Amino acid sequence: MNATTKNWIPIGSLLDIPRRGARCVKSGDTTIALFRTQDDQVFALEDKCPHKGGPLSNGIVHDGCVTCPLHNWVISLSNGEAQGADSGKTASYPIKMDGDTILIDIVSARSS
Ligand code: FES
């Protein structure tokens, strides 16, 4: 397998995630949060805030970001990076859609 090969795994349905909400799936010891935006885009981040590990899946989804419920850091859904003056990064995972089915590439996680 080379670096550009993707291993797409079906992980659930878009319809299982509320708009502007999240749903979690487990991959080994890692919890992955799938976020659905108001306009039905889906993003996957490790469910762990880069600040102190807060559960991002319980945060508010807005403007392509999620606000952590613990101390209100704002994390980009597309790359997991903390926004504004904060710094740090949560692992993000490539996602693609096949109809309403969400496919994830867990192997190609982009972490800090
Ligand atoms: S743990 Fe997320 S902002 Fe502090």
Tell me what you see in this structure.
With 112 residues, the protein is an all-beta fold. 0% of the residues lie in helices and 38% in strands. The strands form 3 sheets. A 4-stranded antiparallel sheet has the order 2-3-4-8, with no helix packed on it. Strand 6 and strand 7 form a beta hairpin. The radius of gyration is 13 Å and the shape is globular. The mean pLDDT is 93. FE2/S2 (inorganic) cluster binds at residues 49, 51-54, 68, 70-71, 73.
List the helices and strands and how they pair.
Blueprint (H helix, E strand, L loop, with lengths): L8 E5 L7 E7 L2 E7 L5 E5 L13 E3 L2 E3 L6 E3 L15 E2 L1 E4 L2 E4 L8
Antiparallel strand pairs: 1-10, 2-3, 3-4, 4-8, 5-6, 6-7, 9-10
Which terms summarize this structure?
112 residues, four-stranded antiparallel beta sheet, binds FE2/S2 (inorganic) cluster
Relative helix content: under 10%
Question: Would you tell me the structural class of the helices and strands?
Answer: mainly beta
**Which percent band covers the strand fraction?**
35-45%
Q: What is the residue-mean pLDDT, rounded to a whole number?
A: 93
- Strand order, biggest sheet? 2-3-4-8
Task: Report the total helices.
Answer: 0
Distance between the termini: 22 Å
Biggest β-sheet: count, sense, barrel? 4 strands, antiparallel
Over the alpha carbons, how many angstroms does the gyration radius reach?
A: 13 Å
Task: Tell me, briefly, the overall form.
Answer: globular
The ordered string of helix (H) and strand (E) elements is EEEEEEEEEE
- Are any ligands bound, and if so which? FE2/S2 (inorganic) cluster
Strand segment tally: 10
User: Which regions have little confidence, pLDDT < 50, spanning 5+ residues?
Assistant: none
